[in-house]
Amino acid sequence: MDEEEAGVYRGLTDYGDREFSRYLRRTFLHATGRSPESLERPVIGIATSASDFNPCHRAQPELVESVVRGVTAAGGLPMRFPTISLGEGFLDPTAMMFRNLMALDVEEMVRAQPMDAVVLVGGCDKTVPAQLMGAFSASRPAIQLVAGPMSTGRHHGERLGACTDCRRFWARYRGGDVDAAQIAEVERNLATTAGTCAVMGTASTMACLVEVLGMALPGSATAPAVHADRLRIAEATGAAAVEIAAAGRTPAQVVTPASVRNALRVLLAIGGSTNALIHLTAAAGRLGITIDPDELNALSATTPVLVELKPTGEHYMEDLHASGGLPAVLHELRDLLDLSAPTVTGETLGETLGAGPGWVDRSVVRTRAEPARATGGLVWLRGSLAPGGALIKRSAADPALFETTGRAVVFTSLADLAARVDDPDLDVEPSDVLVLQHAGPRGAGMPEAGYLPIPAKLARAGVRDMVRISDARMSGTAYGTIVLHVTPEAADGGPLALVRNGDRIRLSVRDSRLDLLVDDAELERRRAALPPPAAGPATGYRRLFHQHVTGADQGCDLDFCIPQR
Ligand code: FES
User: Fold this and answer.
1) Which atom of ligand 1 lies nearest, measured to the CA of 162?
2) Residue 201 alpha carbon, nearest atom of ligand 1
3) 448 Cβ below 6 A of ligand 1
4) N or C: which terminus of the chain carries fewer CB neighbours within 10 A?
5) Domain residues for 25?
6) pLDDT at position 380 over 50
7) This prediction's pTM
């Protein structure tokens, strides 16, 4: 081992005397009670994101202990270190605003601390993307370990899983067919174990994408958080990190345009979260790999949805694990994937797939001959309302609304939405198009507010879906005919800011179009009357975010974190 370059001597603290730096580092490491010999081993950092504010990561201490076991058994020196943790639903205004902060934290702590490789332990929606982004920029050998999904709960004989069922029951409560006592009972049975949301939401989608990208061990995405498989995967991940350190295998050697294309295929085939496209764009962008929306649509047209998990189907992540996990899906997709793509193990994707998954529950993972849907889950839209693009998850939408021309009912902000959506006097019909403005990355941190509630008076009349359009995001666990990520966002003066009540809007999933049917002269008049852009926060990270966040089409990364080509 070259002591200048590796192990505990990597990246010496600068006191102007290198020998003193080494001596001092050893001095403090002796305080840990480790043997002098163990300090000569390759150092494997373990980036932990346990937090009492992140219930999805509740089992992480046990998981990390398993990683430590694996590292030690393989001859490495495990070194745990904390980073920011992002518990979805526990951050104001939205976890999305802090994904980039966590990415900065991970990047600099991986780069600044002496480690030969890092195991990234995350799970809840924004944590895995942040860890990937940070590790990609740090350019140190890295491997991802996810927390694993929750197991399902029960309510009156029905299986429940966060968070598609959270939304389903909330919609029923708003519609008046579930009362306050029942919704309180449901609330206690939706999230009953450690782990990430039990459906194909953002966390599960990212877990699958990390596996197909080659950044996690084969078969590691789906094991439930409380299953012994999860601990075995953690131990194997620790051992793999030692091998990765020895090989010096950096993320840039693992994640290539081919593996990003494979990840897009899988995103479409699993009916994955819309958020994952933003995260994949941001992470790939850190390695200089861009995602072409036209390619996404071309892939979507030729990729069937094979996985029957909520919100697209009826099953849960624990069912996918029991049905062969992601490898069962990858086997079905073999001829659509680039099997020569590298993985963190040193094998190609094709080599890791081997002979096949054995028994597969075909009610969970469909065959190519009998897919859940013939085409992929996502469609990138373009048009006069979204010159930079917008996204719809057609696999979770109502096909009856795919070709809609309707009257706009506009909410100018999240506060306006909250104040008026349930107003009995709101002028709204089931055939209208609900529009939310100023909920994009710069305008509001891009919360998961794109799942606009059906106005109470329509919900009570039995309306369950309407076309809804915004520059916000939507939870991966949500469903409906919802157009998201409209770019440029309203806060940047995009056409979305120019929509007024009564305008006609045309959505065509068939033509991949989203158009505002208002003539140009009128739009110019409205544009001239727009107020000047808001100054944003005056200090701190929120100012940095406001000034530098990119649009959804570029992954909402900080512009200075994207390498210039
Ligand atoms: Fe953590 Fe859904 S809230 S994964």
Assistant:
1) 2
2) 2
3) no
4) C
5) 1-39
6) yes
7) 0.96
